[in-house]
Design a protein that fits this description.
This protein has 547 residues and is of the alpha/beta class. The protein contains 23 helices and 13 strands. The chain folds into two domains: 134 residues, no CATH class; 382 residues, Alpha/Beta hydrolase fold, catalytic domain (Rossmann fold), CATH 3.40.50.1820. Helix 4 packs antiparallel against helix 6 and helix 8 crosses helix 22.
Length: 547
């Protein structure tokens, strides 16, 4: 259904020859020859011209680069490539991959078309697939720069692996200390539903001041008074239905759960983007509007607590859970402040031109808030909120170390090892080490992606399904982990029930961890420990975000 929308070429017009330049040399190589090289390692006459300038290691690297797949799919790729951030990366790739005529505009559209078609391959998006699908009879590529880009991406993957190893090592150390004090086999299994029967009701709130219509789901446990309140904030392109699994789970254990829909960055916005009636996955104002949505909805539910809910909800005990942009939302409400100084430093054209951290492109849009309304100082902190869980949040520049250190309440950061949207090292692991608050936790889903925590949406024609290769390994297991961690965290720090504290440690995480999706939980990780994992200084680690 998407093919007519995205300027697709038919296979008969796909590239047959690649004109590769290496230094001053430029010769043509047939796509067929590259396919044979990838399949068997055979170097034909055209490729041999280049092979004489490459050592054995570089030739093996070229073969690997041509066939290494990226977790992606045509819908997700096309969605991203029609945003300003996606077009930014297209222009960057267009500097090394060009049409035969070398015309910038035609090359831009050709590259976008080829990427979407290549992403539809069941085996994943590869460079060879991109060359195969490129429209026109030939394509020009700067081989040296392509190898350079591959090296940058390889470094990012390698650095993330080192960080994951550091987290795993720290988890082993912490678990060894904690394991002797408690038998986890005797503890209840929090992956299971609780004892309370739950009910769900949807409310329609209108913030007339900001002209925001906020459809909100509320889950309640029946037969219990004075229940703590948890807010769930969804990410870009999803909605409240994607977190029904968590809302109903927490409610079954005695929490009231409030799940608003954020207009401007939900499934309707995604649908508008894909239909061409919107050109942003989220406008810059959403950095303010999302936290203000939560404040407004809490005010509305608190007002109804006096009548409809008969005082059952305890607004002295409120927590928040957020995923992706919702993770940013939760951290902002917990006290993290937008760091315009950090954004100005990280969002300079040259720095952006060199980054492969896609989330930084979105974070930099927040600078427009300062230029449009430089005198406005929104207080995004909500004093009702006593603890926060942020899953796959964006943090590195929008908050930076200064902004994150304003969080004075308990915080849990959840990262996924295979997150290509908000890379774990730059957006969660290193930022976790910056937080000075001692009541902090870092959970890592080994094998998880940016989408592992997102449940299946229900009842919305705007929902876009995500295939298994982009969701990652065993998303059902990921959701069980989040149920198991969220419950004791909120019971301990929102409801004030200290008997749940034994669940919040590395030993418990290891006890419930299983393959193919592993789980680690740690309570501390310093910048020095990360530096040791990289065999380099702290300053060098902090530069990793900008290869």
């Amino acid at each position: 259904m998407l093919l007519p929308t995205f300027e697709m070429s038919d296979s008969a017009q796909a590239a047959q020859k690649v004109y590769a330049s290496y230094s001053a040399l430029e010769r043509s190589i047939s796509v067929t020859a590259l396919e044979e090289f990838v399949r068997t390692g055979a170097v034909d006459e055209s490729l041999a011209v280049y092979a004489q300038y490459l050592n054995r290691g570089q030739l093996q690297e070229l073969r690997r680069v041509l066939q290494s797949p990226i977790k992606a799919n045509a819908v997700a790729v096309s969605q991203f490539l029609y945003t300003p951030q996606g077009e930014f990366l297209l222009r960057r790739l267009g500097e090394v991959i060009k049409t035969e005529s070398r015309q910038e505009k035609s090359g831009f559209h050709a590259l976008r078309s080829a990427l979407i078609l290549a992403a539809a391959d069941p085996g994943g998006l590869t460079l060879l697939g991109l060359l195969r699908e490129y429209p026109g009879s030939s394509i020009r590529i700067d081989l040296a720069r392509t190898l350079g880009i591959a090296s940058e991406l390889e470094k990012m993957v390698s650095d993330t692996g080192k960080a994951m190893a550091a987290v795993s090592q720290k988890a082993n150390i912490e678990a060894a200390v904690e394991q002797t004090s408690l038998s986890f086999a005797k503890l209840p299994d929090f992956r299971r539903k609780g004892k309370f029967v739950t009910s769900k009701k949807t409310y329609r709130f209108l913030d007339a001041v900001r002209n925001r219509f906020l459809l909100t789901d509320v889950y309640l446990p029946n037969g219990i008074d004075k229940v703590p309140v948890i807010v769930i904030s969804h990410g870009v392109g999803t909605d409240s239905s994607n977190f029904e699994y968590l809302g109903s789970h927490l409610a079954s254990h005695g929490f009231a759960v409030v799940v608003p829909n954020h207009p401007g960055s939900d499934t309707k916005q995604l649908s508008s983007l894909m239909k061409g009636s919107a050109n942003e996955v989220a406008e810059p104002n959403e950095f303010y509007n999302r936290p203000l949505d939560v404040k407004f909805v809490l005010d509305q539910v608190q007002q109804r607590n006096k009548s409809e809910f008969r005082g059952r909800l305890n607004f002295e005990q409120v927590g928040i859970f957020g995923q992706s942009f919702g993770g940013y939302t939760g951290l902002a409400l917990a006290g993290a402040q937008i760091n315009f100084a950090q954004l100005q430093k990280d969002c300079k054209p040259q720095a952006l031109k060199e980054t492969w951290n896609v989330s930084l492109l979105l974070q930099c849009r927040a600078l427009e808030l300062q230029s449009k309304s430089p005198l406005i100082k929104h207080n995004l902190r909500d004093e009702r909120i006593k603890a926060v869980i942020a899953v796959n949040p964006i943090t590195s520049s929008i908050f930076g170390e200064t902004g994150l250190n304003n969080i004075k309440i308990p915080v849990m950061i959840v990262a996924s090892s295979d997150d290509t949207v908000a890379p774990a090292l730059y957006e969660q692991i290193l930022p976790f080490s910056w937080i000075g608050n001692q009541q902090k936790y870092l959970a890592v889903l080994q094998g998880g992606t940016h989408f592992s925590a997102i449940g299946e949406g229900k009842g919305s024609t705007d929902q876009v399904g995500l295939p298994s290769n982009i969701v990652g390994d065993d998303p059902a297991q990921a959701r069980k982990y989040l149920n198991s961690l969220s419950l004791p965290f909120f019971q301990s720090y929102v409801a004030g029930m200290t008997k749940y504290a034994p669940y919040l440690n590395a030993a418990y995480a290891k006890a419930i961890s299983s393959q193919p999706l592993g789980l680690n939980l740690i309570q501390s990780l310093t910048s020095t420990e990360l530096a040791q994992a990289f065999n380099s200084g702290l300053k060098e680690i902090q530069k990793q975000q900008k290869p």
